[in-house]
Structure formats: structure tokens, C-alpha cells
Specification:
The protein has about 50 residues and is mostly helical. It has one helix at about 1-45.
Length: about 50
């Protein structure tokens, strides 16, 4: 009975790790998007 419990715990741990990694990647993408938007707005301000 111990094996399924351990494997379930490992599975949830891996899922948690993957979720964390996905969240980090999302944050990175958002930061990139924000940088692009920020650069565009500065660019437009300087043109105007």
C-alpha cells in the first residue's frame, strides 16, 4: 500500500514543479510584452 502513496506524492510534486515553471515562463513572457509596449510608448512619445 505504500508504493501508490509515494508515487502519488511524487506525481503531485512534479505537477507542482511544472506549474511553477509554467508560471515563471508566463511571467517572463508578460515582462517581455510589457518591455515591448513600454519601448513602443517611449518611441511614440519621442516621435511626438
Amino acid at each position: 500500500m505504500m508504493i501508490p502513496k509515494i508515487s502519488m506524492r511524487m506525481g503531485s510534486h512534479l505537477l507542482f514543479k511544472n506549474a511553477e515553471r509554467a508560471k515563471m515562463e508566463e511571467v517572463m513572457v508578460e515582462k517581455k510584452k510589457n518591455k515591448i509596449v513600454f519601448a513602443k510608448s517611449i518611441y511614440l512619445i519621442f516621435i511626438c
